[in-house]
Amino acid sequence: MRADKGYGIVLMEQNRYTQTLLKCLTNSEFYSPASMSDVEKAFLTTDNTITDLHDNNLISEMEVSFMNVTNPHLGKFFGIPKIHKDLVNPSFRHIVSKKKN
């Protein structure tokens, strides 16, 4: 994997990487679990808000087409090690990517 701040490539045991990120995701101070129903409800609420804004002439048709997502999908969560802070036990920069790959 690549390192944070462009410092090169990092080799790490996959189990260590996975456990570190799972520990982060299960920290209830920052994250909470969401069901697919919750996610679908959030997408629907967003669509309804965009429609309401357009119906009230607050956004244009062009803005509606820009904001509407026809095939929504969840992002990919991963971490990039911050080896510039600690080479042996780096913390991670948490990323949620919306790339479709």
Instruction: Give the biggest beta sheet.
Output: 2 strands, antiparallel
Residue share in β-strands = 5-15%
What overall form do the CA principal axes indicate?
elongated
Number of helices: 3
Count of beta strands: 2
How are strands sequenced across the largest beta sheet?
Answer: 1-2
- Secondary structure category: alpha+beta
- The span between the termini is 16 Å
Order of helices and strands: HHHEE
What is the average per-residue confidence, as pLDDT, rounded to a whole number? 87
Give start-end ranges of low-pLDDT stretches: none
The value of Rg in angstroms is: 19 Å
- Share in helix: 25-40%
Structure description:
It is built from three helices and two strands; from the N terminus they run H-H-H-E-E. It has 101 residues and is of the alpha+beta class. The chain has a two-stranded antiparallel ribbon. Helices cover 39% and strands 12% of the residues. The longest helix is centred in the middle third of the chain and has 20 residues, at 36-55. The mean pLDDT is 87. It is elongated.
Question: What is the structure about, briefly put?
Answer:
The protein has a two-stranded antiparallel sheet with strand order 1-2.
List the helices and strands and how they pair.
Elements: H1 14-25, H2 36-55, H3 61-67, E1 76-81, E2 92-97
Antiparallel strand pairs: 1-2
